[in-house]
Design brief:
Helix content is about 20%, strand content about 25%. It is of the alpha+beta class.
Length: about 260
């Protein structure tokens, strides 16, 4: 099974740039999208269904803003879209799909571009962690999305200059340290330990051409099935967004019994 995460920075704009052609070529089992900036009616549903995808969406109340979606070749057994926080829920930040053998959580973390948004981000972190602890953990959990947090020094092109920049703040990195250590493995880093391996680049100063980027998009795999991760990567040559697709191939199996 191949699981992709991709912040498309507007699904309608991505479609105009060739998203559907890429999707038909890649045909992942699961595609977790963030920042779709659209309602379900504004998605290319006919084309997606022709490709065999079930489409699950949690749009923001505000039009043209935020929102997450999952394209799945398998029907989900249960869907959840609430963090239990009115403001965060109005922004369409999470979608959880439960399948027979695992649970998938797709999230779009606030960016922290202003002091107010950073404060909301710091509210989001414990709310998100609390939500994941309440999920049915008898099944393995895979958490994907745009976290808007660089975890390690090698995940950002200039860690010293960005030490006090939202997205690389010590308190954000500590939270991600703890979240991963609690029960997850970073699926991409299992196979790619190298630096300069980014998933987002600013549109300014030819940052992508110069590879002056940040790694803020993750596929975190339940540690109970970490041995089932068989490959991972970034599709750097896909240019539908200021992010690139990030993926993990995993053989989902029943979880190990924890005694």
């Amino acid at each position: 099974m191949t699981i992709y995460t991709f912040n498309v920075n507007g699904i309608r704009a991505a479609v105009r740039k060739g998203f559907l052609n890429w999707l038909q070529s890649a045909m992942p089992d699961l595609v977790c999208l963030q920042e779709i900036k659209a309602t379900i009616e504004q998605l290319p549903l006919d084309e997606l269904k022709r490709l065999g995808y079930y489409v699950y969406v949690n749009s923001a109340d505000k039009k043209g803003y935020s929102g997450v979606a999952v394209l799945s070749l398998m029907p989900a057994e249960r869907i959840e879209v609430s963090l239990g926080h009115q403001t965060l829920d109005s922004e369409g930040r999470v979608i959880v799909l439960e399948y027979s053998d695992f649970t998938l959580c797709n999230a779009y973390f606030p960016s922290g571009t202003t002091p107010e948004r950073q404060a909301l981000k710091m509210t989001f972190l414990p709310a998100f962690e609390r939500m994941t602890t309440l999920l049915n953990r008898s099944k393995p959990l895979v958490v994907t999305g745009d976290f808007n947090i660089c975890h390690l020094d090698i995940d950002i092109h200039d860690p010293k200059r960005n030490a006090n920049t939202p997205g690389f703040l010590p308190e954000e990195r500590r939270w991600l340290d703890g979240f991963i250590a609690n029960s997850f493995v970073d699926g991409v880093r299992k196979y790619h330990q190298e630096p300069n391996f980014y998933s987002w680049w600013s549109y300014r100063s030819m940052a992508r051409d110069r590879n002056k980027g940040w790694r803020i998009d993750y596929v975190l795999v339940d540690e109970r099935i970490s041995d089932c991760v068989i490959n991972s990567g970034h599709d750097f040559d896909v240019h539908h967004s200021d992010h690139c697709p990030v993926w993990v191939s995993v053989n989902i199996q029943p979880p190990k019994v924890i005694k």
